[in-house]
Amino acid sequence: xxxxAFLILVATAVxxxxxxxxxxxxxxxxxxxSKQNDDAISKIVPxxxxxxxGVRVEATKALVEIGGPKTLDGLLKAAADNDPEVQIRATxxxxxxxxxxxxxxxxxxxxxxxxxxxxxxFTDTNDQIIDNYVMVRPEVILALGKIxxxxxxxxxxxxATRALGVLxxxxxxxxxxxxxxxxxxxxMYEALVAIEKIADPAAAPRVTFLLRDLAxxxxxxxxxxTGLLRNKDAAPAVRDALEHARSVKERRAALEALAQIADxxxxxxxxxxxxxxxxxxxxxxxxxxGRVRNFADVVAxxxxxxxxxxxxxxxxxxxALVSLGKVDTERxxxxxxxxxxxxxxxxxxxxxxFVIELARDAAVRQAVYTMLPxxxxxxxxxxxxxxxSSGDRDSVPVLEGLSRDPDPDVAAEGIRSLRILRxxxx
Length: 426
Description:
Elements: H1 2-17, H2 23-34, H3 41-44, H4 53-66, H5 72-79, H6 84-98, H7 102-105, E1 112-114, E2 117-119, H8 138-150, H9 154-166, H10 173-178, H11 185-198, H12 216-228, H13 235-243, H14 248-261, H15 267-272, H16 279-292, H17 298-307, H18 311-323, H19 334-341, H20 348-358, H21 362-371, H22 377-390, H23 396-403, H24 408-424
Antiparallel strand pairs: 1-2
């Protein structure tokens, strides 16, 4: 019934529009509506069926500007349009409903148009992703999957592929994977990043062939995805990539992938690279040692930690030591070092990833809990995020306590993280 009513509304309005043969007048009408509140949505939606592309673009822009869940049906209609600009703007608008503010950095903000050709610039930063508890309507993922797979414009396909990563669109994973075979480097790269965000191990084997791609950017990203998805079957191909690495960047990525896979067969390889001159290589080697967890390596990794001057490898060495059982909270110990680094904006991302992984161990979580009373504001906020990702039922009262923290920012993060944790718990 809802769909029928929607179609009747569109048909009625299109009929009304036919009395105005000037597209410029219709564009002005849409712009006037966009200045109103969401009550104007029903007046704007019919213009999405206009014969003039410019009018449909303006109607899509108006819906995006109004924003909010009430625009979803209209944006889904726009997403089915054949024009690339309409598809791109609808894509960013759909994501913006679930991740407010996305539109400010989205691809549609850089669009330029010459005839039927649309151009824009993708930002280098692609780390946005919705929280686990955010539920996306299945129709949205389906619509974006159709664009990612079948849009005539590579720009529209690439933008939709990025959007599916942001929205964790697992139901459209096959559409994302299709982009790996496009031969367009931008689309292939965005598909790899989206696969990483969706984080379905089933996709891992579909990435392996790109470890030999001609473009270094693609090879490096494929190595990262292979490692993060822990594709053990790809270990021989990753070792080959390490052996034939054409740059330090590629060498780091290959060793990091092996460190994620953590095959005990690579233990000697990690030990041999622990003294490498490159910070990134040393860091990857230390991570590998930490995940292989051979307790005979405690002495070597402790010595490396004590003598290390590079921030990145020192954090990795601290991770390895905690992984190998050093979970005390002494002032200069590795766990305290990791938690303290959560307060440093430049390195908190690295430290947080390590603590998230380590906090899956109940002993590590208990040690972290003891540090909370004296933790700084930033540390408390980051610990809340850690527990959201890796906590268990024992973390619920801890996050409840943070949700009542006197600092409103800490309390807000505590509430949000508690919500994420409860979504994860069985």
